[in-house]
Amino acid sequence: MSVLSRVVRRLFPLVLIGLAPLASAGGPDLRAPEDIAELLTPFLPDETAPGAGGQARLQRLISEILSTEGYFSPQIEFAEVDGDLRIDVDPGPRTLIAGVDVTVDGPLEAKTRRELIAGWGLPVGQPFRQQDWNNAKQRVLSSLLAEIHAGARLVDSEAVIDPATREARLMARYDSGPPFRFGELRIEGLERYPASLVERHNLTVRPGAPFREADLNALQTALQSTPQFRSVLVSIDRDAPPDAEGVVTAPVTVRLGERPAHRLSFGAGVSSNTGFRVETNFQTADLFGQAWELNTGLRIEQKKQTAYADILFPPDAGQRRNSVGAMAQATDIEGLRTERVAVGGQQLWRRDELEYRLSLTWQLERLMPDGAPESLSRALVPNLALAWRRLDDPFNTRDGIVLQGEIGVASKAVLSDQNFVRLYGRYQQFFPVGQLDTLTLRGEVGYTIADSRNGIPQEYVFRTGGTGTVRGYSFQSLGVSEGSATVGGRYMATASAEYTHWLDEQWGIAAFVDAGNAVDSLSDVSLAVGYGVGGRWRTPAGPIGIDVAYGQRNQSFQLHFSLAIPF
Which of 422, 426, 483, 424 is CA-nearest to residue 456? Predict the structure, then answer.
């Protein structure tokens, strides 16, 4: 008897009686071992005393359910007590696997065949469960399909059960089919965009290369992440005939559904750093009919207002993304008002865990501190930023590390008011504790090498304090005093330790201590310390954090909230 027919035969009574009704308080009185009761209870009817025909159906149902867990000789007794039905179930001994026969036919390398058979997940001596049996068969098939043998199939399988000896003997036979390699790329569904756009995003699927399912998935993921395509399906022709050498060269079909070219969006939010926010954004994925991306918008926050426009170009042959942009911004934070405009270009390259950004930015900034004279500064800064990330989950991280480093340079000889070199580094690491908890350590340092901070735009010196830096202090309140305002200094350092205890998969509580400061001279170093507690709520976009922190220096409490995604 085939596996499919066995499964259908066993599950059919479940369909007849009802798959999901929970036993009510007035249903049959089930007497069974705890694990067996948990297994059976969801399938019991609500009637307290079904007739003889109902009892017969119940007996068949219980037997079928128990058989999927390896109990093939249960003892089931019915009794009426005070007009209600009592069911006594003794599952009996569990059936164990006594023999396994797995064969893989076809033009398969001997080493691969041995590894597949050795990886069979249902060994002799293990209790027989229908689900484990299904999973073991699928695991071998999935391994075959994942690399080279895209036409592999399960030819036959059988589980022979001997209720008398309580033994199960398993047989599974596979045919690897011929080896596959990628053929030509066939692109369907394009209307506005050229086929070269797909090729620019294709890093993995190369004609003539051995088939790997992971390569197909990587291409599909890359195309789905673009703003040009709404739907993507990448597949191969698994029915293509083999050539004279027994190898199938399978064409790769990429079916695409294009997104609307233009999108207008609105948003609102709030941050403990910059206050309430409203914004509007316009995006187009086909600027000038070249598949260039335009992203422009206006963001108005209580402490910061920003207008921006960026143009992003498709990846080049080396998978580098180039962009150009312009921005105008005004801020009013800790007594310091700034107005600045900036234009520049950037190149982004990302591969696996490594990312680099190379940018060139020119900006003009007006500095207006309360109680001190205004100043005007300009700088042309080439900047290199490197980041290395290894995280178990980028949105809900329990184990991983993030390392970042930046270097920027300006010269009076080239459109700048001050000579300086800006250095910045950041470290963040996550340590899993127990089943759910996490310890997070973070540190960052910055140093702007210059004769003076005067003439350097605030982006290239340092202020700290607030959510994500030193909690217990207002946003960018730690820095150098100028008049009654806080401005950036040439040195900065922060450190943080946080322990998060998750009450369940969604809710958690945290305790933390932060320390740091920004100064203009090492002789002025004095760390500001903050500590507190907070709540965490896991969402698909990452944990949302709400913290209450006490600043030891200012002896006051601060409320902080954030979307706690690691940088």
Answer: 422
Neighbouring-strand partners of residue 277:
269, 301
Domain spans of the chain?
Answer: 3-90, 96-175, 180-258, 261-309, 315-321+330-563
CATH class of 96-175: alpha beta
CATH class of 3-90: alpha beta
**What does CATH list as the number for 315-321+330-563?**
2.40.160.50
Class of domain 180-258 as given by CATH: alpha beta
Q: Which amino acid is at 79?
A: A
Three-state secondary-structure class, residue 482: strand
Nearest to 168 by CA among 120, 122, 110: 122
| Shared fold status for 96-175 and 180-258 | yes
- Which residues does residue 326 pair with via DSSP β-bridges, in sequence order? 309, 343
- pLDDT tens digits along 420-472: 999 999 999 999 999 999 999 999 999 999 999 999 999 999 999 999 999 99
Torsion of CA 301, 305, 309, 315, to 10 degrees: -60
pLDDT digits (tens, 9 = 90+) for 162-196: 988 999 999 999 999 999 999 999 999 999 999 98
In angstroms, the CA 299 to CA 305 distance is 6
Long-range contacts of 282-288 (CB under 8 A, 24+ apart): 283/227, 285/226, 285/227, 285/228, 285/259, 285/261, 286/192, 286/193, 286/228, 286/261, 287/311
The torsion angles phi and psi of 112, rounded to 5 degrees, stand at: -65, -40
The least confident of 2-6, 196-200, 205-209, 497-501 is 2-6
**Residue in the structure block whose two tokens are 């070219």:** 261
CA 418 to chain centre: 42
What the block records as the tokens of 536 is: 């965490």
